[in-house]
Design a protein that fits this description.
Blueprint (H helix, E strand, L loop, with lengths): L1 E5 L9 E4 L18 E4 L3 E5 L5 E3 L2 E5 L12 E2 L8 H4 L2 H8 L8 H10 L9
Parallel strand pairs: 4-7
Antiparallel strand pairs: 1-2, 1-3, 4-6, 5-6
């Protein structure tokens, strides 16, 4: 299965969905015909802090919310909830808990390292 997003303004759902082909299940827009209406997404997984996690990073152990036993990073992962596109991660208990508490798993490790080593300050975007 692949991950897609329907961008058709007339679609009642206008959201992400999993399918074999780029056809919105709600409005039937076909991304094979119009690639601007239904786009394929890279699944971005939720990267969770966990002292017992199997993925070792300089900032501590982590795990992927939907694949807690996976020992290697997938193609894309983030500790910021807004960046996550994987529907399985979004359905995980940890993601749901963090969403309710408005908590992110992102660690400012890189930003802190940049500031310490180069005197640079990362600009935080968004609300």
């Amino acid at each position: 299965m692949k991950l897609f997003r329907c961008c058709n303004e007339a679609c009642s759902v206008q959201g992400d969905f999993e399918a074999e082909v780029a056809v919105c299940p709600a409005c039937k827009s076909d991304g094979r015909v119009n690639a601007d209406v239904v786009i394929e997404l890279v699944p971005v997984h939720y990267f969770v802090k966990d002292a017992a996690g199997p993925i070792h990073t300089p900032a501590g152990n982590r795990r992927i919310a939907c694949m807690p036993l996976r020992e290697r990073l997938p193609k894309a992962a983030s500790g910021e909830r807004k960046a996550v596109t994987c529907p399985h991660c979004k359905a995980s208990a940890k993601f749901v808990q963090d969403e309710a508490g408005e908590v992110d798993q992102h660690d400012n490790f890189i930003e802190k390292k940049m500031a310490a080593e180069h005197g640079l300050k990362a600009v935080v975007q968004g609300p």
